[in-house]
Design goal:
The complex is a heterodimer of chains A (195) and B (293). The longest helix of chain A has 15 residues. In chain A, 58% of the residues lie in helices and 0% in strands. In chain A, α2 crosses α8. Chain A is globular and about 55 Å long. Chain A is mainly α. Chain B is an alpha/beta fold and 293 residues long. Chain B contains 14 helices and eight strands. Classes of the chains: A mainly alpha (195), B alpha/beta (293). Chains A and B meet through α7, α8, α9, α10 and α12 of A and α2, α3, α4, α5 and α9 of B.
Chain lengths: 195, 293
């Protein structure tokens, strides 16, 4: 594998190295090498119909040296983390975890599908956690729609109002008493290298 | 007496407050102690996993570390929190280097996590630890065979089948049947509701939820019972949108499994936040009304 890296374009070689680092960073990540291309993952995935590249094709593209194409596809951001593929894979590949690993590479290298700003939700979410220590649902929704689709802010207003009326959507965030603890943990953990 | 460290999680403070209220009321009625983890924080959810894994695990471990000092197993009703907390334990047990890094981060908050704390879901606690016989003894209100679609969703059964079989879990069915409800055949019981896709990719999520609602109607259910805040919100709060998008007229109540238990145990619906649901479970409410609770 090492010698082959040299014949790949530099960017692909970099992404490939990052990918191997990532799959080595969670239990059973290396099982990806066993893929049979049977397609059970794509068949069992409830959202594969909406993907431009199916989960099976994702692994095929990685093998063919096209990681950048995977990162530019909508696939990794459409995964709802239901783990159906993971439990059905006949050779035990941790497909959901692998898609998470690809999301992390995309975030680190800033490679996203065009006109598909799903990753901004994760960014808004972790901003809230740093600030308050907990998720702030109303703030998260507003931030996300402001950043991605202004119109949705209005089309979701009815939902928001009916939840607020029932006391099921807090207007204000709830902050931890010891929010400094969380921030200290986040800062320290961020010092560790990627993975 | 059974006692657990209680981890409600962010959703149970707001959108899923009826879940929080009903779990507390049901556990109290059954004599199980819940001690809220003091000043708990967000588990990191699926979001941190997409940004930086080690940070996600470190903040999740803060909750585990506090529970470890309480000396109790954790009860986590939100199925997403449940899976994330368990995943954190699995990660720590897998690699001593990762365990070391996480402890280094926790040290910044004067905490350490050395003894792994077992994370449990209330469905599992009620069926396995307390037992159905104990629950049956305390039934006060007959549910008259109200037909319930038991909807497990993803995170409590996958990826490791912690509480039950990954394809055909049955524990919630048994729990509902034990209190006099009638669990119907629900082939979509472990099918995904789309989770956060309702925010990011609404069209896709609406279709998934349409299928879940249709399966409940096809199998003659009066109500869907869930164990997850996101499933409940997607199926219930977005039902109007689903009706509009697909020209349907669903009016399917979606309650938490604990609501059905609570009504059978004689707990007032308002105490459990049932009145805060958008689609009211009329048949369940009628059972409570007729028993004058």
């Amino acid at each position: 594998m090492r010698q082959r890296l040299e014949i790949l374009p530099r960017k692909e070689a970099e992404l490939r190295a990052a990918f191997w680092d990532q799959v080595g960073s969670f239990p059973e990540g290396e099982k990806i090498k066993r893929c049979l291309q049977c397609g059970t993952c794509s068949g069992t995935c409830p959202v594969s119909y909406a993907m431009d590249i199916t989960p099976r094709q994702t692994i095929a593209l990685f093998r063919a040296g096209h990681i950048e194409d995977i990162l530019q596809s909508r696939t990794i951001w459409l995964c709802a983390s239901c783990y159906s593929c993971t439990v059905r894979c006949p050779v035990g590949i941790r497909i959901t975890d692998t898609l998470y690993a690809l999301k992390r590479i995309a975030m680190e290298k800033h490679i996203y599908p065009p006109h598909f700003p799903v990753h901004t939700l994760s960014k808004a979410f972790i901003g809230n956690v740093y600030k308050y220590g907990r998720n702030y649902e109303l703030g998260l929704g507003i931030k996300f729609f402001l950043a991605t689709n202004f119109v949705k802010l209005f089309s979701n207003m009815g939902y928001g109002i009916s939840m607020i009326r029932r006391g099921r959507l807090g207007l204000l965030p709830r902050k931890l008493k010891r929010v400094n603890q969380i921030r200290a943990i986040i800062r320290k953990a961020n010092e560790f290298g990627e993975a | 007496m059974l006692e657990y460290a209680y981890y409600p999680g962010c959703s149970l403070e707001h959108t899923a407050s009826p879940y929080d209220k009903s779990i507390r009321a049901v556990f109290s009625a059954l004599g199980i102690g819940l001690h809220e983890i003091e000043d708990w924080n967000c588990c990191g959810a699926t979001m941190y996993m997409s940004v930086k894994k080690i940070v996600g695990y470190a903040i999740s471990a803060r909750n585990l570390a506090i529970a470890q000092d309480m000396g109790m197993q954790i009860c986590a009703p939100c199925s997403s929190c449940y899976t994330i907390l368990r995943k954190t334990n699995r990660h720590i047990a897998w690699d001593p280097k990762e365990r070391h890094k996480i402890n280094e981060a926790l040290k910044a908050a004067d905490l350490s996590y050395d003894t792994l704390v077992e994370v449990r879901h209330p469905v599992d606690i009620l069926v396995t630890d307390l037992g159905l016989a104990e629950i049956k003894k305390r039934i006060k209100v007959p549910l008259k065979g109200i037909k319930v679609a038991p909807y497990y969703g993803c995170q409590i059964v996958r990826p490791h089948g912690y509480i039950d079989d990954v394809d055909d879990p049955i524990k919630m069915d048994h729990l509902l049947a034990a209190v006099g409800a009638q669990p119907v055949h629900y082939p979509s019981k472990v099918r995904c509701c789309g989770g956060m896709l309702m925010t990011t990719q609404e069209k896709v999520a609406l279709k998934l939820n349409l299928e879940l609602l249709q399966a409940a109607v096809d199998n003659d259910a009066d109500v869907i019972a869930t164990a997850c805040p996101l499933c409940q919100m997607n199926l219930e709060a977005y039902q109007k949108k689903i009706n509009k998008a697909f020209g349907r007229d669903f009016n399917m109540p979606v309650v938490y499994f604990s609501h059905i238990l609570g009504v059978a145990l004689g707990i007032r619906p308002e105490t459990m936040g049932l009145d805060k649901l958008i689609v009211q479970p009329e048949k369940l409410n009628a059972c409570a009304r007729e028993a004058r609770i």
